[in-house]
Amino acid sequence: MSSSATVKIINRLGMHARPAMIFAEAAQEFNADITIRRTDQPSPVDAKSIMQLMMLAATEGTELEIKASGSDAEPSVQRLVELVQSGFNEE
Fold it and tell me: Cα-flanking dihedrals φ and ψ of residue 77, to 5°?
């Protein structure tokens, strides 16, 4: 199984260290192989790696594509999309 979705960073500070950690930890809860990439760049990174997530330099307004493959691909993408849409629960 595979699943994908496109989502836009809405929080003012983008995906800095704290959101990257929250995102990676959420991704690690799933068995699926999960990648994420900026839609303006060709290469995806491992969504379970805090360092790779930070290297995306995803600022406010950056559009990201989340892809997952594996038995829990659908719920993993859904969970990560919700996390980004919530602004990583930041004010």
Answer: -65, -40
pLDDT at residue 91 is higher than 70: no
> What is the DSSP secondary structure assignment for residue 49, as one 8-state letter?
-
- Flag whether pLDDT at 60 surpasses 80: yes
Using CA atoms, how far residue 85 sits from 13, 32, 36, 69, 71, in Å, is 14, 21, 15, 21, 24
pLDDT tens string 32-47: 999 999 999 999 999 9
Query: For residue 67, what is the enclosing H or E element?
Result: strand 63-69
CB atoms within 10 A of CB 19: 23
DSSP element (H, E) containing 68: strand 63-69
Active site amino acids: 16
